[in-house]
From TrEMBL, chains A, B:
CDD domains the record matches: CobA_ACA
Enzyme Commission identifier(s): 2.5.1.17
Role, per record: Required for both de novo synthesis of the corrin ring for the assimilation of exogenous corrinoids. Participates in the adenosylation of a variety of incomplete and complete corrinoids.
Principal place of residence: cytoplasm
Domain Cob(I)alamin adenosyltransferase N-terminal: 13-30
Name by which UniProt lists this protein: Corrinoid adenosyltransferase
GO molecular function, one term: corrinoid adenosyltransferase activity
Listed NCBIfam families: cobA, PRK05986.1
Organism lineage string: Bacteria, Pseudomonadati, Pseudomonadota, Betaproteobacteria, Burkholderiales
Amino acid sequence: MDNEQAKDGGLTERHNARMARKKEVVDKKIAAATRNAGVLVITCGNGKGKSSSAFGMVARALGHGMKVGIVQFIKGAIPTGEEQFFRRFPDEVSFHVMGEGYTWETQDRTRDVEKAQAAWQRAQALLSDPAIGMVILDELNIALKYKYLDVQQVIADLQARPAMQHVVITGRGAPPELIEVADTVTEMQPVKHAFAAGIAAQQGVEW
Amino acid sequence: MDNEQAKDGGLTERHNARMARKKEVVDKKIAAATRNAGVLVITCGNGKGKSSSAFGMVARALGHGMKVGIVQFIKGAIPTGEEQFFRRFPDEVSFHVMGEGYTWETQDRTRDVEKAQAAWQRAQALLSDPAIGMVILDELNIALKYKYLDVQQVIADLQARPAMQHVVITGRGAPPELIEVADTVTEMQPVKHAFAAGIAAQQGVEW
């Protein structure tokens, strides 16, 4: 038994052996995943983190020199931090706020349908532009859930996009047909939320 | 029955009535959540979106004129898009990459512990600076899971931070003691991942 083992009861040695086995497994998986392609990512569920995850990917894409297009389908009633920030880069980010608030705020289905369809036209322009490396369709799932848009039309347009273009779709209530055609899907599950403890939505965190 | 109803079988009317009820419920909850406070957010689980959600909150915070501090505990082996992007704003973002790769890559526990402790010292400096509105502790959960850091020390430092400072902690394996003291916790659950379909980690999406 060397000094290191004497100090930590073999923890270091066991850890190192476990990590060597883990490295083998991870390396094998990485070796198998070699294809490059534009991926369709969906973030759904009731937990916090769906839109913020999309905006984190915007930052990543910009760091790699890509151009990004963003369409917000539902939000639009208040200016958000993400809008204020990404509008600083008009040559790199094309930011379209096409909503007027959540559906329970507007209470006008006819108007919501019109707004969603106008937003989808913006999305179609981005999805047919090979210069755009990533397209964010924020809260599109909600527009689909309420059938403001036809899911088959949306899927057809997504599948006709440039081969290396990434798309991130966010919002509760993603329809199963959309999940079926997506590459990466995460469900954000709420474990707890500050809201329940009486804390108001905080700048920077929620908007 | 008016024209609108004749057209859609009453869908618009039912939708509007449902949204009116929903608005009442949401408004009541908003009225109850009025306290302003720095929130402690944790993103955990095995799904994609934990770190990207944190970086989306960085964008939001910057949009609201806040200063942000970022410490990456594990990542550091390859330059990421988020690092390249947020380093553009040295006056607003203080970015510290303190890791050398995932633990199964380094395979050296003693060194991992030293790196994690050096990273925590950086975190402590940010957590005691009231000029920093948001602190991101990326992959801290992994450093805690492997006991590179003492969770009680980490909690004590978090709780002693400025009252309005937000903290976002990411990574798999968040310890229960940390979840207990957090305000908002989301578990990212993988529904599917492009990796499994043979697609390599894509720039802008995964890093």
